[in-house]
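Changelog-linked ticket: magnesium ion example.
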Amino acid sequence: KLTIHDNIINELDAEQREAVINSSGKVIVIAGPGSGKTKVITYKIAHLLLNGIKPSEILLVTFTRAAAKEMIERAQKVAGKNLDGMMAGTFHHVCNALLRKYGWVMGIKPNFTILDEEDATDLMKLARSRFVTSKQMGKALPTHNELHSLYSYMVNTMQTPYEVLLKKARRWINVVDIIEKIFQEYILEKEKQNVLDYDDLLLKMLRLLEEHPDIRERISSQFRWVLVDEFQDTNILQLRIVELLSQVHGNLFVVADDAQSIYSFRGARFENVSELMKDARIFKIQTNYRSADKIVDLVNAMIPRSAVPKRLRAVRSSVQKPIVVNTYDHFDEAHFVTQRIIEHVENGASYSDIAVIYRAHSHSLELQIELAKKNIPFKILSGLRFTETAHAKDVIAFLKILENPYETISWMRILKLLDNVGNVRAEKIISEITSTEDPIGTFLNVDVKSENIKSLKNVLTESLGKSPKEQIRTFYENFYKYVLEVHYQDFRDREEDIERLIEMASFYETTEALLSELIVSDARGITIENDEDSGKVTLTTVHQAKGLEWKVVFVIGVNPGDFPHFLALKDNSLDEEERLFYVAITRAKDVLYITHSVLSRGNYISYDKIERDFVKDIPPHLAEFWRVR
Ligand code: ATP
Ligand code: MG
């Protein structure tokens, strides 16, 4: 029988306490935004620790790496115990770690490298090119980008190409045979190169668990508890994976809000929630601790349709109703938001208390300019991630070659940094070296006169067997610095990034560990740690704002066509847009602004008219309406 500790009792309400203390077996905590779902998981971990469960017996799955880190820190404080040895992170992290250890039983070499989206798309391009025999055929087929998203959707929803095309893209049904062949080629190429893409991490993990009962037994005996946050955004693969991982002990503890499911375009299915509810114990929490009551009133009026209806009770009172602001165009909107941020800060808020949330990254551009003009520091959670910038990718490609010399995409990237090497030459070198037992050794023996190939050979030689930090330093100082200076005007900023990368690398003993951290991550997880980030306004898409909260929140660009997004019409996914809007407004603690303008982007870019207007859905008595023109 588990005992209860004071520090846990005192900080939870009765409903939350039940969910933390009296829950074993298959459990789902289902509750609205800001009700403490994440807190319940965190305290559950502390509770388990205090009752003698070892960190290594717990598996925590979160939506971002950063979320896992925060929860770990909090749980350690509450329990007064160390959590070293607990496996925690996103599904992709967890699967990556387990596949490195057990993947060999299904022929996966432990030094496999991972293709990010861009690399995977490049590989799809290669696969596609092998089947395009005429211009006409090129036109009849989806582009490599389209192929990659179809492929990814197919894997994540466990469907056949035909099924996916039937539902998503009928116009290509007549070329389904070729599409299948391209996918086959893509899969073969991955095997040949000893690489996995993101989707493989889930797919192979599931196969491993399904097809190897001994391994399944072994892994799932280790995890006495499997805990999952943001369960409403899991896909079918992930549902099966956690069910199998918790098979031996049967303790699967998940928290969810089906009204906040916003990733169906990537194959997430909120049906997972109702499916699990069939044979799980259900806990409900109904108090909202995050938002002031006037905000909760509006939130309650905007709850999307969902399987489990939830009304929230507020505990914090306020005087200020949510403010709906109408401006003339999005330049005025940016101006208004900036002005208000200045006022809030003058009245005592710090920049980090404030966030601006939008539907699409491009909707933030005017605001970025305006904020920069006024010298307001901001950070962006959406947009290009650090590891997607060209210079970071170059460094990563170098490390990947050292780790897995069969990965041609990385060789390509590195060889093309050399001035006198083009596509044809690079391809020739690559096919020559990757058909041998020792690609790096073969490369070192390639007979060349050109100086820069020689210098690449030198840095490769020097890096073999070194720590990841030394590897990056060698590559950078003896080779890459010169490339940067020639190719980029802003090379100083980029150099600074690489210095920080080197600093970060010093925390990792192996190249593989560093690469896993860098690649199997998410936008929030891997903004290379920067202390200055703490004093900044946050700019973010709704998708990236999930689970987070700020004192002051601006939801901008709430114009039909922008938010709800015009593409939703095509996909018939207005429901998802509703849920997105719901997620956006529920991030606010004290003050919520919703802004829209007379001229929307639709007046400049032509797209299909969308009728749905969220501002019109707002009951007039629940908000203040301002006009700023
Ligand atoms: P979301 O659906 O947005 O992920 P959530 O249900 O996970 O929200 P949390 O982020 O865990 O909610 O909690 C929201 C806020 O309420 C946090 O600031 C948390 O510290 C606070 N909170 C939760 N429970 C309590 C409580 N019992 N007493 C005081 N504050 C609480
Ligand atoms: Mg949460």
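Closing comment: Example verified and attached. The radius of gyration is 26 Å. DSSP finds 29 helices and 17 strands in the chain.
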